[in-house]
Amino acid sequence: MKKEEVRDFFSRTVSDNEDLSVGVVAIMTLMKIIEKYEDMTVQGLQKNLKEGISAMKTTDHPVTAINSGCELFMRFITLAKLDDSNFEECRQVMLNRGDIFLKKLQQFRDRIVKLATKFIADGSKVLTHSRSRVVLKTLTEAWKQSNHFEVYVTQSAPDNSGEVMCKNLKAEGIPCTLILDSAVGYVMEQVDFVMVGAEGVVESGGIINKVGSYTIAVCAKEMKRPFYVLTESFKFTRLFPLNQGDLPAEYKYTPSKSRLEERELKEVHPLVDYTPPSYITLLFTDLGILTPSAVSDELINLYL
Q1: Can the peptide bond before residue 270 be classed as cis, meaning omega within 30 degrees of 0?
Q2: SS3 at position 6
Q3: Whose CA, among 35, 73, 213, 242, lies 20 to 30 Å from 206?
């Protein structure tokens, strides 16, 4: 597939499948590249896959999720030892492994929901940020279990994705209040805990997520409110930032903005920020409920 075809397929699939995370769609795109590949060498296919990953990263979708999902895919599906000498047999092995991998990913969210709903008690007041698919599903499932609670959702500038989240929650009959990002401190003393998703989980156990997450986490810690993160393990990534400046520019800005000079970037609004592990209470994952310190061990297991 040519780069333009990869970008079109990826962007179209993201638009047509609102319930799928960008990382999962990235893996689906790599599967399509393998399926459409016409040459007959594994080396050429691997080169084609890497070009496909680069093409996806030129779209205006979160690079964090693309990187982590594709990294695992390349590790388990294409870089694993292939015993078949015939290329077509190798291709089928890769596609079969990919199908198994995708089926497992689809089950991850259900496992997280099962764990996290137990922490939402009757009468709870929950604060969430932006729009997270796994958080939305968790809150919806908890409501169906006759748990009565209330949700505050940040507006989440600059794309105002919190407005969509609030509409989704209200459509399920869940009491929901949309608040300004700047009102987090005011609302924090009224809530019982914070529940957010993540675009990526780094080696330290910290998270990369929609900008404003760090501010909420600092406020939650100061007011002694638990800060819970709900995320799939395929978002675990081998990155170890120490501060906001350590985040790669491609993570923080759209492709057109990341090419700007440093002086010009100071005037651009970052899309994500880094929340250190010291501000995170627990991570709810398909691997179980983890403390931030346990993430590095899980990453080692994933990449062994």
Answers
A1: no
A2: helix
A3: 73
Residue type, 276: P
* 138 to 30, 115, 195: CA distances (angstroms): 29, 9, 10
Residue whose entry in the numeric block shows the structure tokens 């991850």: 108
Six-digit token pair at 62?
Answer: 């979160």
- Spatial contact of 33 and 220, defined as CB atoms under 8 Å apart: no
Using N-to-C axis directions, what is the helix angle for 3-16 and 22-36, rounded to 10°? 140
What is the C-alpha separation between 120 and 50, in angstroms, rounded? 42
SS3 159: coil
* Residue 51, Cβ density class (10 Å: 0-12 exposed, 13-18 middle, ≥19 buried): middle
User: How far, CA to CA in Å, does 230 sit from each of 22, 68, 110, 198?
Assistant: 16, 16, 11, 7
Distance, CA of 32 to CA of 99 (rounded, Å): 11
- Give the pLDDT band (50/70/90) at residue 304: low
What single letter denotes the amino acid at residue 293?
S
Measured between alpha carbons, how far is 195 from 183 in angstroms, rounded to an integer?
Answer: 17
pLDDT digits (tens, 9 = 90+) for 211-270: 999 999 999 999 999 999 999 998 998 899 999 999 988 888 877 665 555 556 667 788
Supply 61's token pair.
């979708």
Triad 241, 246, 252: Cα angle to 5°: 105
State how far the Cα of 213 lies from the Cα of 198, in Å rounded to an integer.
9
pTM: 0.89
**pLDDT tens digits, 52-106:** 999 999 998 889 989 988 988 887 776 555 555 677 888 888 888 888 888 888 7
> Which long-range contacts (C-beta less than 8 Å, at least 24 apart) are formed by 178-181?
178/153, 178/154, 179/152, 179/153, 179/154, 179/155, 180/154, 180/155, 181/154, 181/155, 181/156, 181/157, 181/212, 181/215
The pLDDT mean for the chain works out to: 89
